[in-house]
Amino acid sequence: MNVIARSVRRKLMLVVLATTTMALFVAAASLIAYDLRSYRQTAVDNLSTQAEILARASAPALAFNDPKSAQEDLAQLKARPQILAAAIYQINGRLFASFSQGKESSIPAFPEKAGWRIDGDRLLLFHPIREKGESIGIVFLSARYRVDERLSDYLVIVAIVMALAFGVALLISSWLQGTLMRPLLEVASVARDVVERRDYSLKAVKKTDDEIGDLVDAFNAMLQEVGRREKALEEADRRKDEFLATLAHELRNPLAPVTNALQILKMSNDEATRLRAREIMERQLRQMVRLVDDLLDVSRITTGKLGVRMQRVEVASIVRNAVETVAPLIEAQGHHLHLDLSGEPAYVEGDATRLAQVFANLLNNAAKYTPSGGNIRLGCGIEGNEVVVTVKDDGIGIDPAVLPYVFEMFAQADRSLDRPNAGLGVGLTLARRLVELHGGALLAKSAGLGHGSEFSVRLPMAASAPAQPRAPSAPEKAGHASEARRVLLVDDNIDFSTSLAALLRALGHEVRVAESGAEGLRAAEEFKPQYVFLDIGMPGMNGYDLAHGLRRLPGGRAMVLTAVTGWGQDKDRQRAREAGIDHHLTKPVEVDSIRAILEATEAAL
Fold this sequence. Notes:
Elements: H1 2-6, H2 8-63, H3 67-75, E1 83-90, E2 95-100, E3 115-119, E4 122-131, E5 134-144, H4 147-171, H5 173-197, H6 211-252, H7 255-267, H8 271-296, H9 299-302, E6 311-314, H10 315-333, E7 336-340, E8 347-350, H11 352-368, E9 375-383, E10 386-393, H12 411-414, H13 427-437, E11 441-445, E12 453-460, E13 486-490, H14 494-506, E14 510-514, H15 517-527, E15 531-534, H16 543-552, E16 560-565, H17 570-578, E17 583-586, H18 591-599
Parallel strand pairs: 7-9, 13-14, 13-15, 15-16, 16-17
Antiparallel strand pairs: 1-2, 1-5, 3-4, 4-5, 6-8, 9-10, 10-12, 11-12
Helix pairs in contact: 2-3, 2-4, 4-5, 5-6, 6-8, 7-8, 10-11, 11-13, 15-16
């Protein structure tokens, strides 16, 4: 110690050795920890991806109880030597099919809870098999997990690096300090730039091929991996935005016939024509409301949980509705639409709005991808036990290499059909999913580029035609009501409240209007209404607080409270019930819903 204390050179050498030792130890430990975690995560991600692919491939086999097909799917794993064993279990836990290679492989008798765990040198994973959002089975995969070998390799490298560093530091400490510090400082500088600029394309310059060079390579590789994941997140966000934009585009489609109908109402004095225009507006408005409801819960589409409201419907009438939606685009392009609905009436069990969305999407695509003045043929017929709707055009056609992927999400954006008017490629994906929800199939055919395309929707035909619907009764005349009611309207949207007030007064009711919750509470004390229609999202006092206040008034328990709001999710209805609100209507509200509440003898949410 005295020799070291008296020698600056030895002190410097000791500092170099200590610093080198600590720096190498910390860097190596951090790198090993990061690599082991990345190795584990990569192994889990790769095995999860393999399990998801296998789950999707084997779902039909499980659904149709076809163990042979499932076994064939598992047999494809022979090309993956790191996979030791695999199995498919039914939802009741029974083994459906299995595969193993290697003496150390084993298959559990029963599946475990979905997830992964490490068992010695094996990585075990259990993954659910889902079909249309419902779990129908479980996939089991067992893969090699050589973390001990990877750790030992890193420890050997660290030991070698430290031994070399000690040897060189003892011989030429001053030169070694400069040699070591320059690349490390450069790596640190690059790291700081990356943090400040979020630019993962930056790289540290590799000047040597020794362990420091390996460190630079590892650092650059780490930056590349982080950059790749950053781009993946950005891509996912971009796809989300594109998906929402496409849904918004689909929402705008019904606006065209509504706009035309408004112009008809302004220009025409013919009562039959005006009645037809009103019917178009009502029908398209209902479709827009349904699309808005779906837009609020877009995850139902991306996760395969989009629901349909099934009823017996006549296909030709749905096709006509779809034609109304797309007619402005067809006319603008100068196309000739040949409509063949001359066959016998065909009925299916389906959602009229969703099927109209499918047909409108196919017509929309035909109009966009057909040069001006082209021909579009839309036919509806019966083939066996199926109703077949075909949309055929003589447009640009589909490349045979693209045809197998035309129903994939964003297929048009990723393939060669990058025309100026090309869509985002989500429409056909949604159309196929909607058709499949109806138990049908959507098929595409094309002879190639320049030879047009043909899309066929095949739906199972209903067992029998529905009973003829009762002809709608003539609209009630203004002023007709079973009994005049005292009605209070509370809404900060003055246009909505005054228009609804005018409608209610025309039906013979006595109406007061308030523009805020506090004003509504004061009006209720004076007016003593029998029925209160209130908005939820109001400044100051919201609808829930207003409902609590109304219930505390003398006679407030007897009031029938109805929320008329744009908030329509289940949690909103539950909160309305907790606030003492009897009914919950989502805007826009049909007059029949208002009448039903006013004429009811009991309040039932």
